[in-house]
Amino acid sequence: MSSEALRDGSGRGHPPRSSRSLIFTQEPMVTVLGQQPRYMQLAQTLVNEIQSGRFPVGSTIPTEFELCEQFGASRSTVREAVKQLVQLGMVVRQAGVGTTVKALRSEGGYRQVMQQLSDLHRYTADTVLQILSKETAEVRDPAVCELLKAGPGETWLRITGLRRSGESPDPICHTEVLIQPAFRSLVVSENESHVPIYTLIEMQFGERIVEVQQEIRAIAMPAAIATLVNARARSPALWVCRRYLNRRSEVVEAAFSIHPADRFSYSETFQREWNAG
């Protein structure tokens, strides 16, 4: 979506009705910056040890039993941690041999594992937003107004940028962020490129985000964006829209990202809850 789309009625930023919607609801504020699941902590430790040279390419990491003993963790926790490394393409399981280190870096692009709102914070902490533009734009298109829950003529802050990861010289995605008029004086500095914009809004204005609505769909890479992210026009891409809502269910921020398909993957974990008794 562009500033022209905000005005001319093209509605390019409006997600299709058939898009899947995922809602992550934040409970107390402590959950926003809460601890990551234990298996993710173990996985990160193993990644760090592989990259530091403790487990070079071609060597095997400790067995599940040994890792359980070293970390004081359950077998299921260790197994899930190793599974993360397998999915990253850094290790491979071989019957009769063990788990062998395959690479020092993850294969392909950035992989996002989403379970709670704090994972959005980690995603931003793991990447850098290179700001390309910051301006105000009037919202005119009915479809965009509906998405933002905005009235025609409202002036929203519009930020565009490229999100980067240290693992790749090419951008992970192009991002466009629209921020509610009440917060259009938001200050975003280069020193805060690792800080989520919704967190900056909370810090600078005392607002509180309690819900994030996310939609993902497959698209053809727009030519204008392809040039910015060094990708081929009309190649496969992922379009991700996130709307950040406050207690009054108002859209405080809406972010639209376009990822080249080979630089981003998305994973969720669902756990079944059993009723006691």
Considering the protein shown, what is the CATH homologous superfamily of the largest domain?
Answer: Chorismate lyase-like
Kindly provide the radius of gyration, computed on alpha-carbon positions and rounded to a whole number of angstroms. Answer: 21 Å
Looking at the chains present, what oligomeric state does this protein adopt? single chain
In CATH, the architecture of the largest domain is 3-Layer(aba) Sandwich
Q: Which outline best applies?
A: elongated
Short description:
This protein is 27% helix and 30% strand. It is α+β, with helices and mostly antiparallel strands and 277 residues long. It has two domains: 3-33 and 115-268, Chorismate lyase; 38-101, Arc Repressor Mutant, subunit A, CATH 1.10.10.10.
